[in-house]
Amino acid sequence: MVQPQSPEPVVIEPVVNREKLRELLALETEYPTLDFKSGYDLKEKHDQVDLAKHVGAMSVRGGFLVIGVDGQGNPTGSVTAEQAKLFDEARLRPKLLKWLPDTLEIYSQVHDLDGHQVVLVHIAPNPAGCAFFRADGQYDQPGRSPKVVFHEGDVFYRDGTQSVRLNHQGLEQVIRRRVEHQRARWQAEHTESYRRLADELRAGSAGQHVAQGPAVEFNLTLEPDVLVEAAIELLRAKDDIPLRRLLSRAVPDLRDLFRSGDEDGVTGILDRLTSLAATFLDLERHEWFEQVIDTLVSIYGIGLETEAPIVNDPPRRSAVLWLAIIERVLALGSLAVRRSDWWAVRNLVARRHLEMRDKYTTWLRHAMTMASRAKLLTARDGNQEVLDSILSRARNVARQLEWLRPDVEPEDEKVLTGLTQFDFLAGVVAMADSTNKVGLFPHFARFYAERTRPAAQRLIREPAMREIIYPGDDQHFAAALHTIDRDAQRAAFQYDGWDGYTQDVYVFIQEQGVRAESSWTS
Fold it and tell me: Which of 163, 371, 422, 442 has the most CB atoms around its CB within 10 Å?
């Protein structure tokens, strides 16, 4: 199995809005997938060539360029308004295509930070695994020979925080990317046949065949399209035997893959189970939704099957499994929020495996703690731990699995808004269920408060929702809201994110005798 790369806190996604910029600047240092540049004047040939070099290097793994900041992410004021206009996508891409292949995929946006122009550019991984320069990159030097930065046919990659010519180490990255692309291409080539079968299932005839045929035909090796449609037909036929057999086989099948180190195989099963859970949630088939979540809890326990107790130094493969499960739980939570299915929200949060230590009242807290200890959610910047964005990772899962977003397109902001609200509600549920009122880290805090505030307002306005999420008395509920707000404001400091509730929520908190630290004035 390919050795894992060192974890980075940069979540690569095709997002270039202000929230993403703040998230990247808060890292305060560069990474292989994040490069800070003080400025570029794209009217100048040497700046065009230098930018092309870095974009080409980023095309191996994908990443971000932030232009107009120093090495610690502080705005420099070096980019003028006129220079910033040249970074418009419609103007930037044609300039770069002088040297880079037509498969180049970039997104860019200009932001004003305290009067300074800052440009955020996202570079997608090239489907070929790398970008071959199509022409020499050179520019004139007064009184000297032209400066050649790269030649036609060259390949650059990111070696640490430098963009350099491809060497043996870089070639391994390219091969890895190429293998991943070929796997995706193979799947795409077979998609049409799977779609045809799915259409037959929707028509009913093939669904009846699955429902009436041997239960063994319905299993987790089916493509997700076929699996989901077959499950729907089985529910319509009121035949639950194949579904029960599939869920009972999921745990031993995944255990075999887990023990063999097949992370791709593990991810495949988790994706199929998540797709089933999302479908049952969307169709309001709560019984089967709950049974799939039961199965995921049992799978979660596979990572706990070890002789020594797992406390401060969890095995990496166990932490990888737990994090992968929770990323999908969060994505399911976003769908539950968008569906206003508060029972499902609580069901997703309140789960735990019996082998977990008693201090962990929810698998969310356990997984994120263990992932952090295994350095899957953090990277070290000097003596400081930098936290990854778990919600951005969950959003990537929703991008990949269409059943997690039956109501929206892949890039719809409602997915992220649902994630921030679910994360907030998860903290409320955790405090309701914890005897010592310990909540969760407020990951929602790094995003704009406007995304999350409606969830808090609904809690105080909708008694039925409140009864499910926090069934305790008003005073304890107000104290929980106050604690979450305090922790979120501390966590949001670097991100220009959470800055407090709306006034009506603070009024509710204060009416219960809890001193609220609000940012509003009466």
Answer: 422
